[in-house]
Amino acid sequence: MKFLDIESPFMQFMGKVADLMILNLLTLFCCIPVITAGAAFTAMHYQVLKMVRNEECYVVKGYFKAFRQNFRQATAIWLIMLFIGLVLGGDFYIMYRSEIEFHVIFRAIMGAIAVFTVFTLLFVFPAQAKFANPVFRTIKNALAMSILQAPKTVLMAVLYLIPPVVFIFIPNIIPLVILFGFTLPAYLSAKLYNKFFLKLEERIIAANGDQEAEEENEEDKIFHDKLEQSLEGKDIG
Fold this sequence. Notes:
Layout: H1 9-31, H2 37-52, H3 59-97, H4 104-130, H5 135-148, H6 150-169, H7 174-180, H8 183-208, H9 210-219, H10 227-230
Helix pairs in contact: 1-2, 2-3, 2-4, 2-8, 3-4, 3-5, 4-5, 4-6, 6-8, 8-9
C-alpha cells in the first residue's frame, strides 16, 4: 500500500508525530531539575525549527547537541526570566490580596510589563536556538521580535495556553498533554515565526556575504551580535 511507503505523506506525518512525542519527553525529563529548563526549551526549539524547515533532524542527538551548546547562556536567560516572573507574580499577589487600593495607572503599568514579559518569553528561546548574541541582547531582540510579530505572538500565547487549560479541565486527555504539551505548541509556533526568521537570516547574509553563511552552516546559528540592526527595517514584519 502506497500510504505505508516511507516517503508517503502519511508516513512522513507519522514520523513527525513520533519525533514530537520523543522531543516532548526529552524536554520534560531535562526540565525536572528546573535550573536546566532554559537549555531544555532552547534545544526543543532548535529541533522543531529544523522539523518545520524539513531539514535533516536526528531528534535525540540533535537535542542534546543543542542542549550542551546553549546550556550556559540559556540557563542565564532562564534564571533572569524566572526572576522577573517571580517578582511579577509576587507583585500581583500583593496587589490583589492587599487591603491597599492601588491606582489604576499602577495596575495598567504592571499589566503591560507582564504582557511584554510573556511576549519576550515566547521568542527568547527560539532566538537563543538560532541566533548567536549575548544574553541581554538576546532578550532585547526577543522583545523586539515579539512586538514586530504581535498578532502571531498573541496566537503563540494562545497555543501555549491550551495544554495547561486542557490539563486542568479535561483530565481524560492528560496523557496527550504529557506527550505533546510542549512540542506541539512549539512546532505550530515555529510555523508562524519561520518566515520572519528566514527574512532576518537572508538580510544578514546579504549584508555580510559568504562568511556569515559559512558560520551558520558550521554552528547552525547566525547574526553574531548583529540582529538588532536587522530588526530596524520597516519591511521585516
